Amino acid sequence: MGSDSTFAAQKRASGGLPTTVATANGVRGRAASVIPRGRQIHKTFNNIKITILCGFVTILVLRGTIGLGNLVSSESDAENQQLIEETNRILAEIRSDKDPTDPDDQTGEFLNPNVTYTLGPRITTWDEDRKVWLQKNPEFPNYVNGKPRILLVTGSPPNPCDNAIGDHYLLKATKNKIDYCRIHGIETVYNMAHLDMELAGYWAKLPLIRRLMLSHPEVEWIWWMDSDALFTDMVFEIPVSKYNEYNMVIHGYPDLLFDQNSWIALNTGSFLFRNCQWSLDLLDAWAPMGPKGPIREEAGKILTANLKGRPAFEADDQSALIYLLISQKDQWMNKVFVENSYYLHGYWAGLVDRYEEMIEKYHPGLGDERWPFVTHFVGCKPCGSYGDYPVERCLKSMERAFNFADNQVLNLYGFRHRGLVSPNIKRIRNETVTPLVNVEQFDIRHSVHPSSGSRS
Amino acid sequence: MGSDSTFAAQKRASGGLPTTVATANGVRGRAASVIPRGRQIHKTFNNIKITILCGFVTILVLRGTIGLGNLVSSESDAENQQLIEETNRILAEIRSDKDPTDPDDQTGEFLNPNVTYTLGPRITTWDEDRKVWLQKNPEFPNYVNGKPRILLVTGSPPNPCDNAIGDHYLLKATKNKIDYCRIHGIETVYNMAHLDMELAGYWAKLPLIRRLMLSHPEVEWIWWMDSDALFTDMVFEIPVSKYNEYNMVIHGYPDLLFDQNSWIALNTGSFLFRNCQWSLDLLDAWAPMGPKGPIREEAGKILTANLKGRPAFEADDQSALIYLLISQKDQWMNKVFVENSYYLHGYWAGLVDRYEEMIEKYHPGLGDERWPFVTHFVGCKPCGSYGDYPVERCLKSMERAFNFADNQVLNLYGFRHRGLVSPNIKRIRNETVTPLVNVEQFDIRHSVHPSSGSRS
């Protein structure tokens, strides 16, 4: 509107000029009969100047309003703009790809609320089937060197982030996970596909976990980890033997869960599921609030009404799990370990400013508030446009967490970051002709687990 | 320059106006003595109108030139702009981080050309030292289940890509490598640090490879792979036993190398180095053309003069290796396997349009022109601003290669992409209550290597 009134004013101004000139002409015209020829020439000259001026004004109006000034922008701006446009065009073409002949390629249709959603046909004999399979396939054991086989699962949507910097931090977070998993002999799956369009978004982990369990019988634990969670203790290992009698390990607080029914009593950004029948059953009980549309909307109202502190929004997987475990406590809780002795999930805001203090006072391997196992950037949403925190604070904090972790990896190679905000590294040990001395001293795998090197 | 002359013209125009007015005043002034008072008022009125007009013109000049018009852009544009500015600001702060007290934190200084660059102190007993270490550390064997231990090394610069879409494709390429390595029991290192500022850019792989060899004595082969190379045959495995007598495996053509001295006779985008003394020696012989500045510039001239088809630019690692192997053929070539029976490196332009034909006629596992092992997007440079090919062609082709590969991974889970350009997937097998049947049939590891499952 501002531009309209300004433009209108300019239009009136330019539209008014001819009137003024005409008036001036008229004035001068009336006086022409008494003004000498020389004066007439001057007046004509003035009129010409005013006309030229009008022309300038018109051009400037156009320039400012429709951006003709861009025609004279720097060459690189034009190239950048062209690059961005080309990129967007091809991506739009990619994203719009649909197969009209495919009855399954339907978007926009919501599940009938009267039909209970299921993740798949109900399996009831998974424990026995899996046991038989493992016996028949000894080359695919579920325990290696006395350690259960763990599969770390993470992922992100298939499309580029709304915010350009988001993909860069997804990449860094992925490198972070690659490092931890290499050091600790954990396999990784990075998912970028929607296995079930009904359960898109944060619910997507449910069909994914089920699918991976059933496709990887050799895996003993499936460990889901959000894309915005970083390992910050590269030495700490999950004390799996602590959970021999459990099928799910999740970070949280029992009093928040059962006494307060708080919607943040547990965190589904980092948790473990044993590959067993119980877990399949829990997933089946968990999923019904998930299908997008009216089901998820209505479920969200139930959750907000029943969970302390929960804002009003559609059902999310974390609230749904909390509600499920509260309302069916007796059925599930004997196999759920609510863990808070270390940061299986560590909320970032209380941690990232203390890294220097941690470096000074403590050491990797503790996994708790002294040296957090996982720093989880809840609410930052670097991939989207609207996080819950200021962008600068989030980016800087993620950079610090990444470098805090990377220092622990680079230590073996004799380097560390120049500062927790710097991408640049500096040497902390000179090159030597006897590098194997450093391997024995600084390779995390040698200190953690004498037999972890071969994963055999 | 265009904008400068236009602005100058506008400046002259606006700067000229007062002169015109003054002249007009002067003209009118001389006539004042003979013009009645009414006319005087009219003239004053005209002057005021011209002054106001000047004011408008000035404002419009400012608006068009410095973009005050942006103040009235749409709200979301303003938010986006703010987001981008905040992001750039914090990133600039991050990138500018320097420690003024650190004598090593010096940029902009080039190595003295009279001093021969070295990657590190010369090691001469690596084979013996490593052998002793392996004997003393049986829990870190270099052969597992009869297979030599391979470490795949890749990476990208620590800063976000110049082109926003670049980080998204780095992420996808990383997922692609995670998948292949998981299936084949290969460990991965993703490097995002400059270990040696002298050898930045494509040369960075040299100090990295050396550092990893010396820090991971348990690794038998280091496999460097560019960030713009994708696995497109998820079944094919490198026939390592073929290279028992060799220390380096690189894709190329011997006739191009020795008969034509072509600068593209070999490709350093995907190659293997055995972890041994010979490789350390080769790295030492390879590195001297690398240090940035006058050394690299001068070396580039030598390479252009001696290698067929090489354009004029600074020395790159690939040309330098080719030149080294040609000029010191007798010293090195008996241990270098120039491989072209499968696509250890597959130049993308001749491959990506044939994927549908491959799907129709062939199957994974061949690794050659029928089903390329690796599709390498040489020249696309999605992370930078200026690739050698049109952006659209590159992005679409990378999308196709990624999905062509991803289909082979998703096959186990019962899905494939809707089309080679689509991020969306469709079910190709119904869910079943007996999922283990599908595992035995579709898990690549079961077909490739009966004992590959445990990596033990």
Automatic annotation (TrEMBL), chains A, B:
A biological-process GO annotation: xyloglucan metabolic process
Domain of life: Eukaryota
Keyword Transferase recorded: yes
Stretches the record annotates as Disordered: 1-21
Membrane topology: Single-pass type II membrane protein
Family: Belongs to the glycosyltransferase 34 family.
InterPro entries tied to this protein: Glyco_trans_34, Nucleotide-diphossugar_trans
Enzyme class label: transferase
Subcellular location, record wording: Golgi apparatus membrane
Pfam families: Glyco_transf_34
This protein's name: xyloglucan 6-xylosyltransferase
Keywords: Glycoprotein, Glycosyltransferase, Golgi apparatus, Membrane, Signal-anchor, Transferase, Transmembrane, Transmembrane helix
Keyword Metal-binding: no
EC number: 2.4.2.39
GO cellular component terms, A-Z: Golgi membrane
Transmembrane parts of this sequence: none
Known catalytic reactions: Transfers an alpha-D-xylosyl residue from UDP-D-xylose to a glucose residue in xyloglucan, forming an alpha-(1->6)-D-xylosyl-D-glucose linkage
